[in-house]
Amino acid sequence: MSESSPVALVSSASPVNAEPVRAILFTGGCRSGKSGLAQRWVESLGPSRVYIATGAARDAEMAERVRRHQVARGAGWRTVEEQLDVCAALRECMPSCAGQATAQSLPQPRPHGVLLDCITLWLTNRMLAGHDDAAILRGVEDLAALLRAVTVPVAVVTNEVGWGVVPETPLGRRFRDLSGEANQALATACTDVILAVSGLPLAVKGGVPAACAG
Question: Which helix (H) or strand (E) holds 122?
Fold first, then answer.
């Protein structure tokens, strides 16, 4: 069998475990442990992993945050930095169907899992880029459609930003409202939704992956 055979490519990147393909939304408040739980799950899927980073190092503090996250992830991750078009970044990680998994359609080896972190920074980036609400929410719906048809497991990290006081500024209220609408759309699209509370996972939809339990 030639190494460009679709069957060879798909089988060589099959998950280490037999877990069905899932798209899991990890949500929670600031420092709730959601990113750590998402990372643990993706790392349990196999050695080939992609991290889609939406954070932009706009100042020294953010640059240090990015550096700490990179150190925490360690080896085994391929990082894709994408502040605006996360759908394109995610499409590169998965063919639309197994029959299309050819050498030409996969610029990188098909990963065992993908971690997209995070949705709220992605929304912030699009707001700062001047995109209006309708365009931003169309992007969210495009991402939701991708998550409904994932061919590799995907963890998506977001934040619950509406549990505190009402923001004082119109921009803050716009961000809160967009975040809430985006989270609802993505939660509907994902197979599972995990709420992180003090580092512990609570299944809101579906179940807690074994790698996150305990």
Answer: helix 119-128
Average of per-residue pLDDT across 33-59: 90
| Catalytic-role residue among 69, 131, 174, 176 | 69
pLDDT digits (tens, 9 = 90+) for 70-87: 666 667 899 999 999 999
Residue 69 bears catalytic tag: yes
Across all residues in the chain, what is the average pLDDT? 84
Phi, psi values for residue 187, rounded to 5°: -65, -40
Task: List pLDDT tens digits, range 95-111.
Answer: 754 444 433 444 567 89
Q: How far apart are CA 17 and CA 44, in angstroms?
A: 8
Question: And the tokens for 27?
Answer: 């949500």
Burial class (CB in 10 A: 0-12, 13-18, 19+), 182: buried
* Residue type at 157 in one-letter notation: V
Q: pTM value?
A: 0.82
Nearest residue to 90 via CA among 132, 151, 165, 1: 151
CA 191 to chain CA centroid, nearest Å: 13
User: How does DSSP classify residue 118?
Assistant: -
Nearest to 133 by CA among 172, 174, 165: 174
Q: What's the CA gap between 125 and 128, in Å, rounded?
A: 5
Q: Are 23 and 188 in contact (CB under 8 A)?
A: no
CA distance linking residue 54 with residue 151, whole number of Å: 22
